[in-house]
């Protein structure tokens, strides 16, 4: 609206007509959990790098900036980043291929969540002329997103966004169920509506039933710093086996769906947290290695 013009009601009417932009990713709780879990696994080097890159109110806490990419994604200056939150496969294809799938809706290649993880890992590693605070905030967010199974869903239904379902009595869509509703219902039912209790439960399993899996989760083939293509392949496979199954348009999802899918959600939050820490530890260890390479002299 221009200064001095009478306020027009038109933009507000238009807002009512246009469907709200579909959710970008794990809700705030999911992202918070991923970053909170990662924080505890940071090496000393990574922790001090994170503290350097996140001054001010975040005070070196990843969880404080984990949803930043969503918050800015709706603003004009960062609209370009919206396609970086997900990647879609062709309809009913339960595998992911970088070359086939990583593009935006206009067909521009290398624009998707896995490319973004490569991109920001590379930026943090190269330490060149990038805004490394933004790189860290984007990376922390996108490692979370790529673990949400429906962030690697089918193109035709926009990762479940166009599949209208009922979550118990509430009307919503399947994507939103996986971003938010499963976590929200779990918080109410099992964790006294307290996110930190849920995070602690996930952390206990990381050091118990998943202990032997953690080194596998952390590792990347060829000693790569990050391996987003692998995380995306897991996600589409889980999307087919669990998210899409028995969740056709118009269906009502209740206890049977909720109780069988919650363990998947909790394990994906755990994997995302462990892997985010592993990626940052590799980035900032190699960084220290380069800088203090002179120590060998
Ligand atoms: C890589 O990062 C730069 C800087 O934020 C951004 O302009 C570009 O769109 C990013 N590309 C991808 C695929 O993430
Ligand atoms: C880097 O990005 C952050 C977050 O957008 C911003 O607050 C900061 O001013 C940027 N730094 C530079 C040097 O542009
Ligand atoms: C932890 O593991 C137990 C045993 O498999 C399982 O019953 C529980 O749901 C898991 N909790 C979380 C938060 O992963
Ligand atoms: C990965 O790194 C480890 C330890 O630095 C090394 O022993 C191993 O040979 C490397 N593997 C590959 C495939 O490069
Ligand atoms: Zn997102």
UniProtKB/TrEMBL annotation:
Its EC number is 3.1.30.1. Pfam families: S1-P1_nuclease. It catalyses: Endonucleolytic cleavage to 5'-phosphomononucleotide and 5'-phosphooligonucleotide end-products. SUPFAM superfamilies: Phospholipase C/P1 nuclease. CDD domains: S1-P1_nuclease. Keywords: Disulfide bond, Endonuclease, Glycoprotein, Hydrolase, Metal-binding, Nuclease, Signal. GO terms for molecular function: endonuclease activity. It is an enzyme of class 3 (hydrolase). This is Aspergillus nuclease S1. It comes from Stylosanthes scabra.
